[in-house]
Design goal:
Helices cover 34% and strands 19% of the residues. The protein is an alpha+beta fold. It folds into 2 domains: 70 residues, no CATH class; 36 residues. It is elongated. It starts with 14 loop residues before the first strand and ends with a helix.
C-alpha cells in the first residue's frame, strides 16, 4: 500500500515505510494482528547530504489511517494568493517605493472580496 503515498512535502523523495507493531505471540496461532502501524520516512534535503536529514515518524491505529495522515497536505490557496498579490504589488508600485504591510493587507482584502 506504500504505492498510495504522496512524495514527502519537505524533501520531495526519500524512503517511506509503514510497518505493523504491537503484535503478541499466540503460540500455535502465530502472531496477533498489529495493534498499531508506524509510518517512518527518511529523506535527504539535498543531493550533497551524506545522511538523511528529513525524518518523519508517527503511529496510527490502522494502515489506512497512516496513509491518510501522510497524504494530508495543508491548503495553500490563501498562501499562494498572498504571494501572488505581493508580487503584483511589487510590480505595481515600482522600484522607487517600498512594499509596506498596509499595501499587502489592502491587496489581500481586495482579493477576498
Amino acid at each position: 500500500m506504500t504505492d498510495d503515498l504522496k512524495p514527502c512535502p519537505f524533501c520531495g523523495g526519500g524512503i517511506t515505510t509503514i510497518e505493523g507493531g504491537g503484535q503478541t505471540w499466540r503460540g500455535v496461532n502465530g502472531y496477533s494482528d498489529p495493534q498499531f502501524y508506524h509510518l517512518r520516512h527518511f529523506g535527504k534535503l539535498s543531493e550533497t547530504d551524506d545522511f538523511p536529514r528529513c525524518f518523519v515518524e508517527f503511529r496510527c491505529r490502522t494502515e489506512a489511517e497512516a496513509i491518510a495522515a501522510w497524504n494530508t497536505r495543508a491548503d495553500t490557496t490563501t498562501w499562494n494568493a498572498a504571494i501572488r498579490a505581493a508580487a503584483e504589488a511589487m510590480v505595481a508600485i515600482g522600484a522607487d517605493r517600498p512594499l509596506t504591510e498596509e499595501t499587502l493587507l489592502a491587496l489581500l482584502k481586495e482579493e477576498k472580496e
